[in-house]
Amino acid sequence: MIIQAPVKNRTLDQEATGTPQADRHSVVTEREEVSPSKPSLAPAMVLEVRDLRKSFRSGFLKRRIRGIDGVSFSVNRGSVFALIGHNGAGKTTTINCILDLVHADGGEVSIMGLDHRDPASRGRVGYLPERPYFFEHLTGRELLKFYARLLGMPKNRRAARIDEVLAMVGMTAYAGRRLKKFSKGMLQRIGLAQAVLGEPDLLILDEPMSGLDPIGRREIRELLMDLKKAGTTIILSSHIVPDVEMIADTVGILKDGCLVAVRDLDELSNGFSYTGDLALGEAEPAWLPADCRTQNDGRARVQVDSVADLRNLLNDCHREAIPVVSLATHRSSLEELFMEINGETPLKREVVR
Question: Which CATH class for the 45-264 domain?
Answer without folding.
Answer: alpha beta
